[in-house]
């Protein structure tokens, strides 16, 4: 019988303490279990979890726990919920008695391994018997399959230095993050076969967050982050998290996403079971297969931004793009555009009247993936500087500066992209509109450089009391520098120099002279 790894008590989550707030009983490098994480949330600045998809999933788990221990998940009225949230923020910490009562009630349900409990956390112990090959032998997926950045099966070995013939165990604490990544962002398609009754299948659908980006409020402490990041979801009598109920029949219809827990933790399409080492401190194997054969009912995730179709159809989750920084969607996130429906959790901060100092930023956590295929590109994270000041004040000047700066950056970026693409087409006599970056070899690097510099200009423009120069001019200057650096090696032959200069001229479109900027006649 392997030693258990109870996530309620065992340290698995690294944290960053607020200055001078770390209790003497914890070392600076100590990781915390769920009980200590909530008990000391007001002393913790933030959790330090990677990769970003794992943090995205973990924040949803913590949101359910926050709702449970505070009672904010059991309110029918938004007005009552809003008042209770403000009272909790003024209290400044979670109630210790409520925390211990909840974890006592579900003792053993946060155990990571099926060798120590019949209900391993977010897993299905039935897979030990149900994952079998056509001959009826028990099979597994392998521990390399569990870890997203490892090579497994027939994947190219240079993806990582791992092979299925000699897999390296994964520390238990790290396996938690791989488990969350699979449950929320797992791919569709082939998986380890699972047989339930007479039904045997080896395919599954996409995880509920696949290919999306999540937006989370960030507070001055983990306590504030969790309270501000708790969306209002009306109470439902049948609401339950996976660790709070018995496993359901995987051939039945999934329960509707009614209530906080079902909405945030009840739409997984993958079923996972981890196999521990003899000591219980590592994972040596895993089974990853389908969780349901029937579809889930549609549900909007409260942390995801949705695009509103022009034809009046249902809102569509905005796709994640590793090349798109969070500030480019800031006006949409703050509810200033009609083309997007901002994440519900951010809308719930509109009328917040508590001390503004509790809120500091918006964090973006995404995974750039193909939603319909098992293609992973890149996961990413980003965070804004403080934005609530302008948000709450509804300062028209701040809003105008924000919108003008974002639009200037986008318009100039389009001009830079057109200039570089046109230059490549002229010099190479070829283009490929279907290929990524249009087949232009220097486009990705150039646009990455541009957006990094444009972001600095954006925030300077948003926070400036008085603009020293039109923001469009500053963006154009960034684009010109990027263009010149990108094309420096081409400035040798007269034909190339002429082409570079011809396409460079297009970057000046939109430049405002000093006279025009001051409203004077430029003539």
Automatic annotation (TrEMBL):
InterPro entries: CRISPR-assoc_prot_Cse1. It comes from the Bacteria. This is CRISPR-associated protein Cse1.
